[in-house]
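Entry 14. Structure prediction run on the chain below.
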Amino acid sequence: MEKAKIRKTKVKSTSAEDLSQLIVTAMQDKKANNILSLDLRHIPEAMSDYFIICHAASTTQVRAIVDNIEEEARTKVAIKPYHIEGRSNAEWCLIDFGDIIVHVFQEEKRAFFQLEDLWSDAIFKHYD
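Output returned:
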């Protein structure tokens, strides 16, 4: 009888930087607009290390972006968000990954809330 081969796979730890890049790529895959990463690590009162913000043209696109981020994180790096808020109305969805908070807005809501202005002392990185 032949011994079954057991393949051991080493689980690689995913850094916040790696996860943030995966999130940005998932947003780009669904044609998110004006993607912005805010590095908050140097701000003592910040509740996370990064905010990643984008907006979409419709509720359908907001949901598609949120679903894609969740799916990519789960399948590529085996990470599930702690919480997702706002999916039902899809005007402003928040995905909480702990060190990273993701905000997916409809364009009008993003303009209204102006999160970028609230965290103006963050380090900004724009993605096209």
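The beta strands are 33-39, 50-56, 83-85, 92-96, 100-106, 123-127.
Filed with the rest of this week's runs.
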